[in-house]
Amino acid sequence: MLGKKLVTAQKRGETRALCLGLGMVACSMMMYFFIGITIVPFYTKSVWTTETVCKVLKTNIEDKVFCPNSEGSEDGKIFPYPCLQVWVNLTASGQEVMLYQTEDTLEKNPKCSYVPDKLENSQEVKARIDTIASNFKKYQIFPCYYDPGGTQTNVILSRLYPSKGLFFAFLWPTLMFTGGCLIIVLVKISQYVSVLSAWQ
């Protein structure tokens, strides 16, 4: 009687462990799919892949411009902000090019190096842009990214999805997938050993 209870408890434990392993594998596959349709296309589409050193040549803040934010181009989404323009000397080619914050900045407004998020307080936006401009004047030499193929003549300060970020994005689902597979293998080995022991 006690032996039957132990066998039943063991089978329940194996079933739960197997369900846990299969659930971890399924979750990791969903995470792979989500990363594949969101992050990977932006990473592969970016042409600014080579890092170099940029030196600030001049910074300029023009009068307020009107530009839609990333959500759309409706009138309700358009807001004015000071246009910061930063020109740098590209060490790799010696050219004078315009600097943008990220790839997304160029798509939002190619006239400005920085496009702020929509904020209700215009003074806060102006203060942030003034701070960024003063930081460029203070730290005139910094790493940046350019297009080695020459498709884009401008440079960006930072990539939205760098190689390190893509690595960490795939790290967690990979660990979950490995852990799930390991649990399934251990359960199968335990079942095999149990059957072998019973047969003997």
Report a brief summary of the structure.
This protein has helices spanning 2-45, 103-108, 122-138, 163-199; strands spanning 50-68, 78-90, 96-100, 141-146, 155-156. It is of the alpha+beta class and 200 residues long. A hairpin with a 5-residue loop joins strand 2 (78-90) and strand 3.
Walk me through the structure.
The protein is an alpha+beta fold and 200 residues long. The protein folds into two domains: 50-161, no CATH class; 163-199. The protein has four helices and five strands. A hairpin with an 8-residue loop joins strand 4 (141-146) and strand 5.
Helix count, DSSP H or I runs of 4 or more residues: 4
- Characterize the overall form: elongated
- Structural class, from secondary structure content? alpha+beta
Ends apart, CA distance between termini: 20 Å
What is the chain-wise order of helices and strands?
Answer: HEEEHHEEH
Overall mean pLDDT score?
81
Give the neighbour order of strands across the main sheet.
1-2-3-5-4
Largest sheet: 5 strands, mixed, barrel
Beta-strand proportion:
15-25%
Can you tell me the number of structural domains? 2
Task: Give the uncertain stretches in residue-range form.
Answer: 69-76
- Counting DSSP E segments of at least 2 residues, the number of strands comes to 5
